[in-house]
Design brief:
Helices cover 56% and strands 0% of the residues. The chain contains five helices and no strands.
Length: 108
């Protein structure tokens, strides 16, 4: 996210819009799409809520690694998509929590 001034405000507004736009996707998927899926797709679909303890640099490396893993699938030419493939939405949130010192101050 850009630091300071207008850049930070614009990035914050964009993040807010992206969160709002994605907020209803899991509920819609669960009620509308999941019941219609074939068993093989239903088994692999899911949710992960994993907490890690990392530095800012490590989190950036995790995000970069995930982008690298996904890039061949995102950039694949439609003519090269294998039979049986379909669109899959991956929602990824990177949500650093407050620093330990900040959390202690809230508890007091």
């Amino acid at each position: 996210m850009p630091e300071g001034g207008e850049g930070q405000s614009a990035a914050h507004a964009l993040s807010r819009q992206m969160f709002a736009g994605a907020a209803g996707l899991p509920h819609r998927w669960l009620s509308e799409t999941e019941p219609e899926l074939e068993p093989q797709w239903r088994r692999i679909a899911g949710l992960a809520n994993t907490r890690v303890v990392v530095t800012a640099e490590e989190l950036a490396a995790i995000e970069d690694a995930m982008e690298a893993v996904l890039a061949p699938y995102v950039m694949r030419d439609p003519a090269q998509r294998p039979d049986g493939s379909r669109d899959v939405r991956l929602l990824r949130y990177f949500l650093p929590e407050a620093a330990a010192e900040e959390r202690r101050g809230d508890a007091e």
